[in-house]
Design a protein that fits this description.
Length: 73
């Protein structure tokens, strides 16, 4: 399973999601969309973070932990 967090600089919500994934022991990659704008072409997010699981944009913003766990199964 591949998890990517699409972030922007100084994104407070992004660190909340990172902490949730850390607590669940889920590895993830953090991608700053200001440095890699090609990600915005592929995943047009208007709110950070965007959470991409196995190539699909599953969430924008902070998901409920139960919903995140469901998608990670």
């Amino acid at each position: 399973m591949k998890v990517e967090i699409l972030t922007t600089p100084d994104c407070a919500n992004c660190s909340v999601v990172e902490k949730m994934l850390d607590e669940m022991k889920i590895p993830y990659e953090v991608i700053d969309v200001t440095e890699k704008p090609e990600y915005l072409e592929k995943y047009p997010i208007f709110t950070a973070p965007g959470i991409v699981i196995n190539g699909n944009l599953e969430f924008t913003g902070i998901p409920k932990k139960e919903k995140l766990i469901e998608k990670l199964r």
